[in-house]
Amino acid sequence: TELLASDGTSADFFGFSVSISSTPGNEVAIVGAPFEDDSAISAGSAYIYELPCGPACPADLNYDRIVDVFDLFRVIHALFTRGEVAEDLDGDGVVTFRDMLIVIQSFGSCDDSNPETCPADLNGDGIVDVPDLLLLLGSWGPCSTPCPSDLNGDGAVNVSDFLELLAAWGPCP
What we know:
Layout: E1 17-23, E2 26-33, E3 45-50, E4 66-67, H1 69-77, H2 97-105, E5 108-109, E6 127-128, H3 130-138, E7 141-142, E8 156-157, H4 159-167, E9 170-171
Antiparallel strand pairs: 1-2, 2-3, 4-5, 6-9, 7-8
C-alpha cells in the first residue's frame, strides 16, 4: 500500500521521516513532510495513518490482505518471543510453532470470506474444512481476545466450538 499526502507536492518531502508504532489492535504510522507549507512557509506537517488490522485476518501480519510466506517469516523471526506481540496468534503469551501452523493454514487471500456470515471459516478460504478444524484444535483451551477459534465467544475453545464448526462444514454462504 502506498501512502500519499492528499495535499502534498514533491517539494514537501513527504516521507522524509517515518515512525511506526505497532501493538496488538493499535497500528499507527506517522509520516513527516518537513517542508510542507500550506499554513506557513516550510512549516512542516505530520500525517497520521491508522493501519488496517483486526480479527478478520489475524495471520496477515504485514496487512497486505494476503497471508503468505512474508507473514510466516515474521513468525519465524519472532519464535520464542514472550509478551504481547502480533506474532503470538494463539494468544498464549509466547510465539511458538503453533503460531507458525496458524499462518500456514491461513495462507491465501483475507478477502475470500466474510467472518460475520461464516465465522467457522477460520482461515478465510470460503470453505469450512480440515484446515479450519486444525486451527480450532491448535487453539484448544482458554484463549484471550481476539480468538477466532472461540466460535461461541465463551473465552475457551472447546467441544461447543468443535460442534459449531462441524455444523458449518462445507462451502460458506
